[in-house]
Amino acid sequence: MAVTRKEKIRVMIYTLTYRIEGYLHIIPESRLTDMLNVKAKDFIPLTEVKFYDQKENIILHEARYTAVNRDAIIAVSPLEGEEPFA
Fold this sequence. Notes:
By secondary structure, this protein is mostly beta strands. A hairpin with a 3-residue loop joins β1 and β2 (about 20-25). The model has no long low-confidence stretch (mean pLDDT about 85). It has a 5-stranded antiparallel β-sheet with strand order 4-3-2-1-5. The protein is globular and about 40 Å long. About 5% of the residues lie in helices and about 50% in strands.
């Protein structure tokens, strides 16, 4: 099986219930929007993930890996060069 080299970028994803922070792995020279626009994938894979409560801003869960359903996503922002929220 061939392995594709990928770069990781830290992102913040908003859903109706959670704010999710983690790393999205993309092909070098591609953009965040390129990954989000791949219609063949229903889920966006993330690593080193933290789930925050939208209202209380507290960590509800941490995981090494999760996959977020594309249809649940309201907004996505890259967090490169920013400090994580407390």
